[in-house]
Amino acid sequence: MSGNVTGAAPEPPERFALLLRVIGPFACGYLLSYLLRNVNAVISPDLVRIFHLDASDLGLLTSVYFLAFAAFQPLLGVLLDRFGPRRVEGCLLMVAAAGALLFAWSPGPLGLILGRGLIGLGVSACLMAGLQANALWFARHRLAGLNGWVLAAGGVGALVSTAPVEWALQWLDWRLLFTLFGAAFAATGVLIFALVPERQQAAARVSLAEQFRGFRQVGRSREFWRIAPLGMLSQSAFMALQGLWAAGWMKDVALQGRGDIAAHLLAAAAGMVAGHLTMGNLASRLERAGVAPSYVVGFGVGAAILVHAALVAGYTGMQPLLWLLFGFTGTAGTVNFAILTHAFPVAMAGRATTALNLLIFVASFLVQWGIGVIVNQYPAGHGSYAPEGYAVAFGVTTALQVLGLLWFFRRMPQAG
To answer: 245 near 393, Cβ under 8 Å?
Structure first.
């Protein structure tokens, strides 16, 4: 965070070096964040076997990440606007490192839950810090595209959490793997402190109480409440499936083995990387041409709903293409962060984006756990669940996304 607090673009030849110093370290943090968010989809058979977990237990364990993540967002927004992304994320990644080590060496489910919660708390700033740093350093018309690069790093993390993790588990057990994750979190925190520039002028002397009152301005914004329902419903459904229940669907509905599941999760992650790069840059280009980024969100989420509807119907054909499209279209809702940044002053960027992120991750906790509760009502024996359970659970999340999309366009400001 630095003296470019107005969002003015830096002048060449400094621009490329600044891009590397600002985007690079935060992208590394977000990569790890997404890797740990999704890795339970691959290691869940080991957790179920060792700790005797059912679908509801597994959903709760995995979704605690979202709950801890969400609970910290209000304070995180204030901390980011007060102390800047460098110091906040650099410190929080050390908490994530401790959580990964606790998860790695826990003797029982309670330790797993506590470790997972600490990981969620520790990575709670990874995306928001990167988005705030972009808003502080770069011109606003470039934000959707630059944010797409940070978000694409999350897609790489999701990619690594699939077949590469499955391959690593042939050589390492999951406890050693999480120990390595802890070391990676600590190293990335050091990297952020070493490379990201600190702001060159003092922050405005505003009390913490006044900063918290800034959330009132966010809460009164019509644009915020136009965006929030669709952001919550589309992103929570996408993250809940990608991070856990897609793998269950593949096993119990499509009758696939671990190798095929890892390969299809890899396809979804590859689609996610491509989607973030495409959606963000497309939104930036269309905005410069006078087309609202909301149309990218709307059409992308509409396509994602069709993919989810195929899962509800139990369609098992063309699986690699289906999951590639799942990942690609699932990224459309993240363009909302750039739209939201335009609706508030740069000094409030942290609070505005963390307010939306809070709602998204509360919804993600409820959806990921809720899917487990529903699926658990349809046992098929031997740790498997009937296709009807997935149809009901995924059908609910798909219907909610349709409602969110209708609200999004119904409340859209009229041109002119």
So the answer is: yes
Q: Rounded CA gap, 47 and 88, in Å? A: 32
pLDDT of residue 355: 82
What's the token pair of residue 110?
């309670």
Number of H helices, E strands in the chain: 19, 2
**Nearest alpha-carbon partner for 185 in 259, 111, 95:** 95
Backbone φ and ψ of 392, nearest 5°: -65, -50
Distance CA 212, CA 202 (A): 19
Element (H, E) at 281: helix 258-288
For residue 13, say if its preceding peptide bond is cis, omega within 30 degrees of 0: yes
Residue 193 exposed, middle or buried by CB count within 10 Å (0-12, 13-18, 19+): middle
Q: What are the tokens at 84?
A: 């800047």
CA distance linking residue 43 with residue 62, whole number of Å:
11
The amino acid at residue 361 is F
pLDDT digits (tens, 9 = 90+) for 127-153: 888 877 777 777 666 666 677 778 788
Q: What size, in residues, is the chain?
A: 416
Amino acid, res. 90:
G
Q: What is the pLDDT of residues 330-384, one digit of tens each?
A: 989 888 887 887 777 766 766 777 788 888 888 988 998 899 999 999 988 777 8
**CA 126, CA 189: separation in Å to the nearest integer?**
11
Helix 143-160 crosses helix 258-288 at what angle (to 10 degrees)?
180
pTM of the model: 0.74
DSSP letters, 133-145, are HHHHHS-GGGHHH
384 beta partners: 381
Structure tokens that stand for 173 in this block: 């057990």
**379 three-state secondary structure:** strand
Distance from C-alpha of 36 to C-alpha of 414, rounded to nearest angstrom = 41
Q: How far apart are CA 348 and CA 336, in angstroms?
A: 16
Q: DSSP string of 71-135?
A: HTHHHHHHHHHHH-HHHHHHHHHHHHHHHHHHHHT-SSHHHHHHHHHHHHHHTTTHHHHHHHHHH
2 Ramachandran zone, left/alpha/beta (phi>0; psi -120 to 50): beta
Count CB atoms within 10 A of the CB of residue 313.
11
